Amino acid sequence: MKGNQIYYLLIGSDKGQYLLLSSAFTSQLTTIAVIQSETFPATSRAGRCLTFWYVMRGNQLGHIEISISNDEGSAHVWSLGTIDQGDSWHFASVGYYSDIDYNVN
């Protein structure tokens, strides 16, 4: 691989799936991967909760950011910085609200 490319692999089974992203194949420090969901309908006033598991390990880590975007703009709802989290999976849960159709990024 050359340039600003990111290796990715979607792995799934009957128990779920996960996406592996690795920038190990690029020398660029500004490599960005953006994953965007399908468009979801507006939430109720109670909002919704996004739950996920992540692993963040390595020497030159970037960061994870989650935002909600719609026709009116984008709102940052969760992030994790450049701290090596080790080889363990970590659970995260993020509550959010959108009064119009939206995407999770």
State Rg.
15 Å
Largest sheet: 3 strands, antiparallel
Question: How do the strands line up in the largest sheet?
Answer: 5-4-7
Counting DSSP H or I runs of 4 or more residues, the number of helices is 0
Pick out its properties:
105 residues, mainly beta, Jelly Rolls, 2 domains, three-stranded antiparallel beta sheet, two-stranded antiparallel sheet
Structure in a nutshell:
The chain has 105 residues and is mostly beta strands. The chain has strands at residues 7-13, 16-22, 48-54, 64-70, 73-80, 90-96, 103-104.
Please, could you describe this protein's structure?
With 105 residues, the protein is an all-beta fold. The chain folds into 2 domains: 1-32, no CATH class; 34-104, Sandwich (Jelly Rolls), CATH 2.60.120. It contains no helices and 7 strands. The protein has strands at 7-13, 16-22, 48-54, 64-70, 73-80, 90-96, 103-104. Strand 4 and strand 5 (73-80) form a beta hairpin.
Note the topology.
Elements: E1 7-13, E2 16-22, E3 48-54, E4 64-70, E5 73-80, E6 90-96, E7 103-104
Antiparallel strand pairs: 1-2, 3-6, 4-5, 4-7
